[in-house]
From TrEMBL:
Coiled coil: none annotated. It is a multi-pass membrane protein. Keywords: Cell membrane, Membrane, Transmembrane, Transmembrane helix. Pfam families: LPG_synthase_TM (PF03706). Residues 347-383 are annotated as: Disordered. The keyword Acyltransferase does not apply. This is Uncharacterized protein. It is found in: Cell membrane. It comes from Prauserella marina. The keyword Heme does not apply.
Length: 383
């Protein structure tokens, strides 16, 4: 017997979410009240864009989508499921469009991918495991990108640090070694049975199942999937760098990368679908604070979001329509969500935890679906 959530809890969650959004909007209004350029200045800046750099940005964003599809395909291959690259690329566009277009978009996007994996030959456990591991790899890819940037910056400044404060690097090495030793020791103390009980106690059985399935994945599949996840983030960053160059903004790669990574970390807080509003504010504030002119920064943010979000919506909806016209049964209904989230009696289904789409969606979102009287998601076709 499954545990039902009390309506008061759902209403309280929505109220807290609305309060969070209002708080963010208040902070945004206070921060940007004197930094938003006039519309005429933004239009004039848009007219100065270099077409070659914009084409390069569009190409980088396409590669980013292809890398996400490759990440999914590699994980499916690791579990013995083969799906065509073009089909997974179309699925990546459809998922991204759904995630930012519908209520509970991340949940609907995850359910849509779950059905696509099932139709591609994966059983229920494999489909769920692939989605969980894909989300974890997205987090790992972002961490690799962030760590690489921090390491590169640290190496550039290491010589100055050693000359100025020779003790600090030694202290840092000792601290890192101690943390690594503690993590390894803690891991060895926990047996597999104890870890399984911990996952069950948390009500996250799908995640526990995914972690168990990790042991069957060959190392080469892990490396290739992680490389694709990292490339997914990296090419999205290259899109922003190309857009910044298109408008003649003279900022270092490190400055733009720092602004980008800050925005991607903040967007994981599920305040708005696809981080709409959050990303724009963080990028504009960061670029202006780094020294960019306000009109050029606003134009760069608009162009980047157009390529990485707004243009993906019609493309994704088109691929979704083509899939349906070809006879695909990929309509996300209440019955599908029940199947997607059913993992056993008394446990929390994976559907309640959602799924991630890398730079264009939350890595993880806990959000209940808005359903109609017949158990179907509001806003989606019922045929």
């Amino acid at each position: 017997m499954t545990t039902k959530q009390h309506p008061w809890c759902r209403h309280r969650g929505r109220a807290l979410r609305a309060a969070g959004i209002l708080a963010v909007l208040g902070i945004v209004a206070f921060t940007l009240h004197d930094r938003i350029p006039a519309p005429a200045d933004v239009v004039a800046a848009l007219a100065t864009a270099a077409p070659a750099w914009l084409l390069a940005a569009a190409g980088a964003e396409f590669v980013s989508m292809a890398m996400f599809a490759r990440q999914q395909r590699r994980l499916l291959t690791a579990f013995g499921v083969t799906m065509p690259r073009r089909r997974l690329l179309a699925l990546a566009y459809s998922r991204s469009a759904i995630a930012v277009s519908f209520p509970a978009g991340s949940l609907v996007s995850a359910a849509y991918a779950f059905r696509a994996f099932r139709r591609g030959g994966a059983d229920r456990g494999t489909a769920t495991t692939v989605m969980v591991l894909s989300g974890l790899l997205s987090v790992a890819g972002l961490a690799v990108l962030y760590g690489s940037g921090a390491f590169t910056t640290g190496m550039v400044r290491l010589a100055d640090t050693v000359n100025t404060h020779p003790v600090l690097p030694a202290v840092g090495v000792v601290a890192i070694g101690w943390v690594a030793f503690s993590l390894v020791a803690t891991y060895r103390k926990h047996t597999p049975r104890r870890r399984h009980r911990s996952w069950a106690w948390l009500g996250a059985t799908p995640f526990g199942t995914a972690l168990t399935g990790m042991r069957t994945v060959a190392p080469r599949h892990w490396l290739l999937a992680l490389a694709a996840a990292t490339a997914n983030w990296l090419t999205d960053l290259l899109c922003l760098l190309a857009v910044v160059a298109a408008f003649g903004i003279e900022l270092s790669v490190f400055d733009v990368a720092a602004v980008y990574l800050t925005g991607q970390l903040l967007r994981q807080i599920p305040l708005t679908p696809g981080g709409i509003g959050v990303i724009e504010v963080v990028l504009l504030t960061g670029l202006v604070s780094a020294g960019a002119a306000e009109p050029a920064a606003a134009a760069a943010v608009l162009a980047y979001r157009l390529l990485s979000c707004w243009l993906i919506i019609p493309i994704g909806m088109l691929t979704l329509l083509v899939s349906r016209l070809r006879g695909g049964q990929d309509v996300v209904t209440g019955s599908l969500l029940d199947e997607f989230g059913r993992t056993g009696e008394g446990t929390t289904g994976f559907a309640e935890h959602g799924g991630g789409v890398g730079p264009r969606g939350y890595v993880r979102e806990q959000q209940s679906a808005d359903t109609g009287s017949r158990g179907e998601l509001t806003g989606l076709p019922s045929g």
